[in-house]
């Protein structure tokens, strides 16, 4: 794992988007113009919702601005601390068929509008996720064996310093969207 990259993040449900935007501005965090991301999530063979995601591989096929990004994430310490590998692909449909041919199963489609900004070595993402609501993700990429939970504590401290009411969640967008779409 020494040469691998981990994406470490914390995620919060946002109840007052204007208050969050104002707090980010006070910190000098200026969000980008919104982009639409259309993600198809995939699970490795044998995995089902309700089972642990730790140590399991999950794929994502994202389309943004007419380009397609293929990502594989493998949660380590928790669902928000993942080994990550990604690359651009030319043909979304062919990549979908390749992922399915490798045994992965499509799970949930996640469509969101995302605005991003950098703050030091952190990326801040404000996401309006169809069916699930508004969220802010704060993430950092680390290399080697840096502790995901220690990095999450640092990211959480930044979120708390914003002084905005945020509800932390440890669920990934696929789980949040799936829960929102299940019959009551």
UniProtKB/TrEMBL annotation:
Gene3D superfamilies: Hypothetical Protein Pfu-838710-001
One Pfam family per UniProt: CYTH
Stretches assigned to the CYTH domain: 5-179
Xref: InterPro entries: Adenylyl_cyclase_CyaB, CYTH-like_dom_sf, CYTH_domain
Domain of life (superkingdom): Bacteria
SUPFAM superfamilies, alphabetized: CYTH-like phosphatases (SSF55154)
Signal peptide coordinates: none
PROSITE patterns in alphabetical order: CYTH
SMART domains noted in UniProt: CYTH
PANTHER family named among the record's database cross-references: CYTH DOMAIN-CONTAINING PROTEIN, SI:CH211-156B7.4
Protein name per its UniProtKB record: CYTH domain-containing protein
Species name: Nonomuraea antimicrobica
